[in-house]
């Protein structure tokens, strides 16, 4: 299952709000917490998880370098690095899935165009004249 990256999420947030992410972040600081600040926070968490994946993957690559000997001491580092990498991937997957679901549920509202005046309801026709049941003379 492919997940959206923080870069793709940033683009979707920018499209939704019609402004660059940096401008949105500055704007959100001056506002009470809301959807924008939640989306920006989710994006930050996703970006952090992606950086964590890179760090742990690079660390494991150094530990597993072909010219490096793996002894008893290194095995515990390999296991710890693998566990940390798996945790970072799990966090990234959850963050990506959550923010994508929220973004999918939102849509950009087009600029409101002046709506035509609504016609008033038609005036009801006057009731027909009442015929008297009394006989005329």
Describe this structure as you would to a colleague.
The protein has 137 residues and is mainly α. The protein contains 4 helices and no strands. The longest helix is centred in the middle third of the chain and has 34 residues, at 72-105. 13% of the residues are buried.
Helix and strand element order: HHHH
Global mean pLDDT: 83
Give the terminus-to-terminus CA distance. Answer: 95 Å
Beta-strand content estimate: under 5%
The gross shape turns out to be elongated
Main sheet attributes: strand count, strand direction, barrel closure: none
Structural class: mainly alpha
Number of helices: 4
Describe the structure concisely.
This protein is an all-alpha fold. It is built from four helices and no strands.
Features:
137 residues; elongated; mainly alpha
Detail the topology: elements first, then pairings.
Layout: H1 6-17, H2 21-29, H3 35-63, H4 72-105
